[in-house]
Amino acid sequence: MAAPDLDTLLADIRACRVCAGEMPHEPRPVIQAHRDARILLVGQAPGTRVHASGKPFTDPSGDRLRDWLQIDEASFYDPTKLAIVPMGFCFPGLDAKGGDLPPRRECAPLWQARVRENLPNVRLTLLVGQYATRFWLGSRAHKTLTETVRQAERYAPDFLPLPHPSWRNSAWLRKNPWFGEIILPMLRCRMKDLLS
Ligand code: SF4
């Protein structure tokens, strides 16, 4: 049987109910993709605001991420430019301290490779956070995300690992100034090239 095209696959994802009953709400998959996209951004999972909006990165993490990428909202939400495919498509719920739970572990093995197969024009995959980095780099990733990000050049030109842009990582960003000095200019250069 032929593999489904991207539109069929996106419809299947939006109808997915694999985790129904495992989360305190109905599944609401959030994904943005088009065959023409040259950049793929693999994030973590929606938080409460994204779950409510149904649109990726409609939160302070998104503001910081767009600043890192030096991209305006129109381009960020243009699926022909940027595919946004998180490790977990649905908001997983909150832990006892009010933080987001990890992405549902059922999601990535089920969907990531199938979506990637339908994005033939991708030249750069941005791996945002530890879950995306571990999944896509496997044994090529270092033990810590910090070291993996520091060694970003090793994964070029296909991948560029990044920390999560959450406000929770503000202390990490202060502690690791090389990220702003070396990695962000590299990232912005690749973005400019691929969006032009
Ligand atoms: S998190 Fe992924 S696997 Fe689970 S219901 Fe949502 S789309 Fe399906």
TrEMBL record:
Every Uracil-DNA glycosylase-like domain range: 30-188
Gene3D superfamilies per UniProt: Uracil-DNA glycosylase-like domain
UniProt xrefs under Pfam families: UDG
Name this protein carries in UniProt: Uracil-DNA glycosylase
Natural source organism: Maricaulis maris (strain MCS10)
